[in-house]
Design a protein that fits this description.
Oligomer: homodimer
Distance between the termini of chain A: 52 Å
Number of helices of chain A: 9
Strand order of the largest sheet of chain A: 7-4-3-8-9-10
Shape of chain A: globular
Largest interface: A-B, 85 and 85 residues
Largest sheet of chain A: 6 strands, parallel
Radius of gyration of chain A: 21 Å
Structural class of chain A: alpha/beta
Strand content of chain A: 15-25%
Chain lengths: 225, 225
DNA sequence: TAGATTGTTAATCGATTAACAATC
DNA sequence: TAGATTGTTAATCGATTAACAATC
């Protein structure tokens, strides 16, 4: 399976799913998984799994399934989990706090080094090992602490401003949790995590299933279908 | 352009982006947007935008751009925003609370009717207009309150159990915020929102850009490349 | 060994982009 | 009007699936 060149985006998006799968598979089910096992576990076809794994670097040719440790090792490498990444979180609301206090980020190589907010009422507040700092110092914090990644956990209308400040400080990557797009220089990477979009997509596909009506206290208005 | 039949998933995923775009576009920029405007705003090609809009139902043929009110109206319809959906949140950690207290969900048609947890320390706790209820009653709550959607905001290892309980109560859709897949009956719709995956994807693409090294306090281990 | 399962090539399917006539 | 911009068809590109020889 040759050394990885450039993995297509659509494949990269499945890699974390494989990671979660091998974690859940556990020793209970044995040391090996077939493409069939993985496919049925994740709702894919075995072909897709094998094609995807083409981009990973496995040693064997034993043809009795994939070694879960090898899958794990390769995903750790490709997803860069064995490099520490320093993270600052912009926005000390519940979403920002959820990330800051998430117990497992370290497992994936992420280390939250600070959290900032614009609201004077929360600046200075302690939670966990963090003290909320003033967002006006965020660029300096990023610079001084050599932060790699900024998490945008602020309302949509502030997202671009916050992104600009983070980038000014020198982050190379942004995780955008806001329901808006942020524009960034070419050297900066952005991944959007779409919570509100997720709910809206869910609405759509729930509706698709039951063509219409069927809902409780509806206030359907200008329907024209 | 003809009434919608079945919109391809890849198009549906862009619809919320169009929604955010027209919101941000605002009256300041005028009442019309061209496919070119939208494309450059969202990083798409004008062709893609026009092809996508094929699935929406516009009235005109004026050829001077799309009326933002019409785009809005159509997205509201297709994303079912004008129907109220009742939501229960499983997991009263920061993530669950973030959703419960999100001020704008109502705008999109979502109404949080309850939040449940398994932790005795938080059961009974008040926040906002909510009182955290015992997760053991979640099926009953779903049934009694005629809940449409369950949000899974619990750790990965509890996600399947929580999904089962929600489904037992009768939810027709799940928003899964946990880093694992949940298996559900065919009638239930699931959308996964991937926060941890997002960070991992970000790791990968940041690394792709700068082929390797270049990182601070790394503890890179079994590298074999 | 024989059955199982990979790695890989080729076929299919679907999504994106290009191009342009229609028309405001 | 003339330039702009759509709606739509056709071409390209890429991703998924099928199929199967290699081989453990």
């Amino acid at each position: 399976m040759s050394v990885s060149k450039k993995i297509p985006a659509v494949v990269v998006q499945r890699l974390p799913q494989y990671l979660a799968f091998v974690r859940d598979w556990g020793i209970a089910n044995g040391k090996y998984v077939s493409s069939e096992d993985i496919a049925s576990g994740l709702g894919l076809t075995p072909s897709t799994v094998r094609q995807d794994f083409t981009h990973l670097d496995f040693s064997d040719g034993k043809r009795r399934g994939y070694d879960i440790d090898e899958i794990n090792r390769e995903l750790i490498r490709v997803l860069d989990m064995d490099n520490d990444k320093r993270v600052v979180i912009a926005g000390a609301g519940n979403l920002g706090r959820a990330l800051a206090l998430h117990g497992n980020l370290g497992t994936y190589g992420f280390h939250v080094r600070g959290i900032v907010d614009i609201n004077p009422k929360v600046i200075g507040e302690r939670f966990g090992k963090f003290v909320v700092q003033n967002i006006k110092y965020v660029a300096k914090i990023v610079r001084d602490e050599r932060i790699d990644i900024g998490v945008i956990a602020v309302p949509a209308k502030s997202a671009q401003n916050v992104a600009d400040r983070l980038i000014l400080g020198g982050v190379r990557g942004l995780l955008n949790l806001a329901f808006t797009r942020v524009v960034v220089p070419k050297k900066v990477r952005v991944i959007d995590v779409r919570i509100i979009s997720g709910l809206l997509l869910l609405s759509h596909i729930m509706n698709e299933q039951f063509p219409s009506s069927h809902v409780h206290g509806s206030r359907r208005s200008q329907t024209n279908a």
